[in-house]
Design a protein that fits this description.
Layout lengths: L4 H20 L6 E2 L3 E5 L1 E3 L11 E7 L2 E6 L1 E5 L2 E8 L1 E3 L1 E2 L2 E2 L7 E2 L5 E9 L2 E5 L6 E4 L12 E4 L2 E3 L16 H7 L15 E6 L2 E7 L5 E7 L7 E2 L6 E2 L4 E6 L9 E6 L1
Parallel strand pairs: 2-15, 3-16, 8-11
Antiparallel strand pairs: 1-8, 2-7, 4-5, 4-12, 6-7, 9-10, 12-13, 12-14, 13-16, 17-18, 18-22, 19-20, 19-21, 19-23
Length: about 270
């Protein structure tokens, strides 16, 4: 069958129009917003000293919605912090409504009141500032500060938690160090061999420091290049662990170098 150019254009237009109508008929998801970022430490309710926390979660309710948010645990200067982003989203623009996302909160133009609570390792936690359990949030600035992308510090209080150097799985590496390295603090077969290293120039030579485990021994070798032969240093074999950090002083390192050190766990 021969189809004229005019009819061909007409058929293509009809097909395109039908496809467009089908597309706009599908639900459009809400627009994610920067939301509210909260962070802080977990403290002992009696001493206010930092304690070990492996999991923190926040629950936020308000505006007819609720969200349960697991926090991410990070380590800064050997101190454990939690960081969580409370998810807000825009659900309407210029009269067009969008499909709400589960476990998210609607970002309103005005200030909406919310309540929040926290748990630490499934144990109820309190806020250092009790008033922080209630707050307002919206797209524009309000009593609590800026709208989109606001950052707040919220330290938590718990009872009966272990101090930050606690070693849950007994593998010789504190929980904070395992969180920092990405290993499982509850599995004694999963631990980092090296967490950090440092070299300090002293009057006695080069002082080499590295992260270590209780009850282990280490050997220090040195070479003049990465492709050279690494030789055990005098007194550098079977070095007993000194705790979470061990050191060795290389007294014969006064030349121009360079020096390359290789440290192994025996």
């Amino acid at each position: 069958m021969n189809i004229s150019p005019i009819r061909t254009i007409a058929l293509w237009s009809i097909a395109f129009s039908a496809g467009f109508q089908l597309c706009i008929g599908q639900p459009v998801p809400a627009i994610p917003e920067p939301g509210l970022v909260v962070y802080g430490q977990v403290l002992d309710s009696a001493t206010r000293n930092p304690v070990q926390a492996s999991a923190v979660a926040l629950n936020v309710q308000g505006g007819g919605n609720s969200a349960n948010v697991p926090a991410r645990m990070i380590v800064v200067n050997r101190q454990v912090f939690y960081v969580a982003r409370i998810p807000f989203e825009t659900r309407a623009v210029a009269g067009q409504t969008f499909q709400p996302t589960p476990n998210s909160l609607a970002l309103t133009s005005g200030q909406t009141p919310y309540t929040r609570s926290a748990t630490c390792d499934q144990q109820a936690a309190a806020f250092v500032n009790p008033a922080a359990a209630n707050f307002t949030f919206g797209a524009s600035s309000g009593p609590g500060g800026p709208g989109r992308g606001r950052v707040e510090r919220l330290d938590l209080l718990v009872e009966g938690k272990a101090p930050t150097l606690y070693d849950s799985d007994g593998d010789g590496v504190p929980d904070f160090a395992e969180i920092e390295s990405g290993t499982n603090p509850f599995d004694r077969t999963d631990y980092p061999l090296w967490l950090s290293s440092d070299i300090e120039i002293t009057g006695e030579g080069l002082k080499i420091k590295w992260a270590s485990k209780e009850g282990k021994t280490y050997t220090v070798r040195r070479a003049d290049s990465l492709t050279g032969s690494f030789q055990v240093r005098p007194g550098g074999d079977a070095i007993q662990s000194m705790g979470i950090q061990t050191f060795y002083t290389d007294s014969d390192a006064g030349g121009p170098g360079p020096y390359f050190y290789w440290i192994t766990e025996d």
